[in-house]
Amino acid sequence: MPCSASSTTVLRGAADMTDTTDTTLNTKGITIKRTAVTFNTDTDSPVEALRPIDLDIAPGDFIALVGPSGCGKSTLLNVLAGFIKPTSGSTFVGDEPITKPDIDHGVVFQDYALFPWLNVIDNVAFGLERQGVGKQERYARALENLDMVGLKDSAYKKVTELSGGMKQRVAIARVFATDPSIILMDEPFGALDALTRRFLQHQLLEIWQKNRKTVVFVTHSVQEAVYLANRVIVMTARPGRIKLDHRIDLDHPRDFTSPEFRALEKLVYDQLDEELAKTFSLEGGQGYSSD
Ligand SMILES: Nc1ncnc2c1ncn2[C@@H]1O[C@H](COP(=O)(O)OP(=O)(O)OP(=O)(O)O)[C@@H](O)[C@H]1O
Ligand SMILES: [Mg+2]
Hints:
Elements: H1 14-17, E1 30-39, E2 47-57, E3 62-66, H2 73-81, E4 88-93, E5 96-97, E6 105-108, H3 120-130, H4 135-148, H5 164-177, E7 182-186, H6 194-211, E8 214-218, H7 222-228, E9 231-235, E10 242-247, H8 259-283
Parallel strand pairs: 3-8, 3-9, 6-7, 7-8
Antiparallel strand pairs: 1-2, 1-4, 4-5, 9-10
The structure holds adenosine-5'-triphosphate and magnesium ion.
The site of adenosine-5'-triphosphate has 13 residues, from strand 2 and helix 2.
């Protein structure tokens, strides 16, 4: 059920879809109200990255954000992370306005952003130390989260000894360890090979099904978006607006080859095509991958 940018649609979140949701889970919704970003540069004219965006994200939703290169996906994620202050509009996690980075808003980027001077377990425990968690509990929780991503045995390795896929698993364990109420992921699997990516998609889904965190996940892969999310948002070419807001109700694990899955991929591609054409003609955009 597509909807246009002008009609803000509040869809039921994943948390509403199941009776088994534990209300004690730390999960919050996100509200984006007329949020716009224009970058002022010293050398060039101002860049309008985002036109006013309205979006209500329910607690426990898994949102996949797709759109042409340069349309403002990372900008929106950076606003939600508190790294960029919007030019206008306001954003909230639960009832709290987003004003600055907060450990309660977990962020995972494409390049892992681990601390190379710390070993694996200390990387995962880092945020817990900042939260004032005692050493014994910090290590226990770090190990539990490393176990969740299959890396318990690598806890005392140096980060530099890990492969790219392992580093990204450490980054995922680290973000879940602090039990944030929302998780923001910017192309977290973009640099990984197809097999590792598939494995991590599966692991992320398992963790999400257990924790029901609200996830906003930016990806260039339409297949990944349809595989993971319960709501796919397609953005227009810059300045970014919402072109499609579509609920995905397929059960997990989803079958890439099923007619339903293929139909949803096509729906998203159809919406992207026009925007991609604009991006290519204006800026020489990068396009979309089918992996
Ligand atoms: N700090 C900045 N200063 C000036 N312009 C910026 C800044 N950050 C982003 N932009 C511009 O804002 C627009 C949106 O950028 P953004 O990084 O959000 O795009 P994106 O959708 O994440 O693209 P990609 O898919 O390639 O990662 C681009 O035109 C970019 O050049
Ligand atoms: Mg980006």
